[in-house]
Every structure is written in C-alpha cells, then in structure tokens.
Amino acid sequence: MTDALDPSAPRPRLEEQLARGRALRRTLKRRGHAALSLPDRDVIGLLEEQNATRMPEMVPIRVGRMMQSPFAFYRGTAAQMAHDLRDAPRTDVRVVACGDAHLANFGLYASPERRLMFDLNDFDEVDVAPWEWDVKRLGASIVLAGRDIGASEKACAEAVSEAVRAYRVGLEKLFAMTALERFYYRVEADRVEESTRGSAARRLMRAAERKARKRTSTRVLRSITTEGSGGDLRIVDDPPILRHLGLITPESTLRLLKVYRDTAAPDVVTLLEQFTVVDGAFRAVGVGSVGLRAHIALLVGPSGEPLFLQAKEARPSVLVSQGGMPLGRPGREPQPPVGPGREGWRVVTGQRIMQAVSDRFLGWFAHEGRDYYIRRFRDMKGAIDLESLTAATLADYAAVCGALLARAHAQSPGAGIIRGYLADGTTFDESIAAWSRRYADVAERDHTALVAAVRSGRLDAEEGV
C-alpha cells in the first residue's frame, strides 16, 4: 500500500479511505494480530549495540534502572521491540508514529496558555511507521504495568482491551469530525479527570495535577542551584545524574542558543533576547535515554526570573534503525530530511504533529557531529504514579491513553483507512490483548536474561541511581 505520507500520492476522500480499510481485512485479518512470531535475536547483544555509542560512565546506570522490573526493562527496549516487529505481518498503513507509546510516556504538561494538558509526551523515536506498532507497544506495556501492581491476567487483558477499544472508538468519533476539527481537538487535564469512571482514578489524576502544577522553573531553581559569592546563580552538581562535565560550556551554550533561535518560533526568539545564560550542566533523564547527552541551561530574565531549557541528544529513530522503516519525513518544510540537525528536527516536527498543543520553546541544532532538540525543562510536567494503580484504575487510565493515541494518529493523511479497517467489532481489541500478553511474557524472559548478564559479568550495572 502507498505510504499515506508520500507527497506524490493522491489525497483520497474519507469514503475511499474507509473502503480501503475494509478491503485490508482480506489481506490481514484483525484476528491475525494476536499471533506473535519472533525473529532470531540476541536481546543482550541488541542492548550492547545501543550502549556502545552512549556515555560509557552512564551505561551501568541505565542497565541498573532496567533491572528494577520487567516494566522498567521494557521502557528501555524500544529498539528491541522495533526489531521484533520488523518482519511481522502488518497492515502497512503508515502514520506519524510515536515509536515508544508505552504507558509511562503519557503525561501532563503546560500549554502556552498555561492550561494543564494530558497527552503523549515522549517523541525521541517518532517517525513514519505502521500505526499498529504504537498500539502493540502500548498494549504490552499495560500488561507489564498490571503485573507490576499484582493485577490478575484477566484484569491485564481487560485493561488492554479497554485501551484498544478507546483507540477504536476514538477514531470513530474523530472521523465523524472534519480534518480541521480533528486538528483542533485537545484534551485538558480536567477533562481527563471528568472522563474517568471511578473516584479512585479521579484521585490519582488530581494528585498528578497538583504535583505537576508545582514543577515550575522557580521550584527547580530552589532545588538545584546555589548563589555564589558574587551573587551569580550556579547549578549544584549532584553526581552522577547532574554535573558540570564540560561537554557544553557556558560559552558554547551561548553559541548554540543562537543556532537554536534559527529553528525556534519568532515570538520565543524575541522573548529570549531578554534573558541571559548563567549556567549549564549535564543531567541524565529517564530509562531509555540514560547515556545520551542531555543538558540543562539556566537563563535569567530582567526581573531575575529563571528559565530552564533542556537540550537532549536525538538519534535516528529505532523505527528506522531496527524496524526497517525507510527514512521518513514526519512533516514537510522547513528542514530537509537529511543532514546535520535532521534528528532534532524529526523529534520536534513529530511532536508538533502528534500533540494537540506543543511546547512553544521547541527547536533543534547540531553540535560536534550530534543532533539535539530543545524544550522547556520541567514546565508543569507530571505523570500518573503507575505503582498506585489498581486493576480498575489501570483499565481507566489505559483507556485514556488509547484515546489520546487515536487523536495523535488521526492527524496523519490517510488515517481514515485505520478507521475502516477496525470498524465496530471487538475482534481487534481481543487480538491485541492476546498479543500483548504474549509479548509481555517475552519482555519478562528478556528481563531475566538482563539480570543474568549482569550476574555473569557480561554487563555492568549500578543500581539505585
């Protein structure tokens, strides 16, 4: 099937897309998604391949974090999953895909209007890929998160089914709208809270909202900076997670911010003219991203107000490097699809497409042979505490995430084909629930192999960091 984002492809009307989706069922039945067939693989070898180009001193921390549980391991293995899906049967209806749409990569953040939004919030692996890869990534994460909290296998399967049902019904509602209405559709945190069915789920959402509203630059300033003898602010080292490594000096930070301004929104550039860069430091983040170059810069405004920006290394998406997808273009202009800065551009462009509202400070640059993207650091960002979920609230939360994934996929041209393919039955929901259980079993075995590799000395791990 023609790539839905091929600029030379005709733009079919919705009726034609729905018909093409229905016809696809003859090529790959919806129940066919339940089957799991793995290629020959060395999961530790794949992990070592990824680690080879990361900061060597951070790799044991990454391995230690992945050892914590099968779900923690899963969070760091988007590459392994793309490798596993590469040759599996697929619809080949391609959209701008997240590439790492697991349960913990949905969360809260501030809109430019300072409203609290809830949406996908990690786009390091975004690129053009089959839509069902994101759905499967989400489904397996639900099973693993459910097992972590002691939910039964039945409850885990029901939670996956709820997520996929919400994805399917979400597409149905979205394609009852016009393309413009889909484009403007957004989900604010208070609407998520209202849509949850139980009081326990609402309490979890409120708790996440309260915590997110406190995560401001002023709060970060108090927690990680100190005032020098001359009154200058300086980020305080907290090794190995936060430290001055000299990878990007204050002088180079100034130079790179000037390059970044060429890719940022004009109003943001004008705003930044009022700020002064006072310090910058390396700061490790997440699970899958540990070992990548990630830096925070502290800027101070004319009234002494702080602004923290984060520059994070961007590498080729695993959807391309491991999933075998062609070098895609999640968008058109202004950046060509190859050359310095391409991967930072990919992350920023993909985020702008998939999120209903995105960070106004997004931009990108290249530095010493590496690509980076820039965003606000801890600007009212937050997430549901997954360990606080119960079997009932897991299903509730999973459904919210499934609906949001539908909104993100619905922005791609040709996504109406997915709507036609899924239709109204529950066959696909049940198939993904079955596949997710099987792949969660694989992730648990892979996690056991990781622990064994550490115990045997093949991998080094630093736990509790």
Q: In short, what is this structure?
A:
45% of the residues lie in helices and 13% in strands. The chain has 465 residues and is α+β, with helices and mostly antiparallel strands.
Characterize the structure shown.
This is DUF2252 domain-containing protein. Residues 322-342 are annotated as: Disordered. It holds the Pfam family DUF2252. It comes from Demequina litoralis. InterPro entries: DUF2252. This protein is α+β, with helices and mostly antiparallel strands and 465 residues long. The chain folds into two domains: 19-213 and 385-455, no CATH class; 217-376, no CATH class. Helix content is 45%, strand content 13%. A six-stranded antiparallel beta sheet has the order 7-8-9-10-12-11, sandwiched between helices. The chain has a two-stranded antiparallel ribbon with strand order 1-4. A hairpin with a 5-residue loop joins strand 9 (294-300) and strand 10 (306-314). Helix 6 runs antiparallel to helix 7 (153-174). The longest helix has 29 residues, at 427-455. The protein is globular and about 70 Å long. It starts with 13 loop residues before the first helix and ends in a 10-residue tail after the last helix.
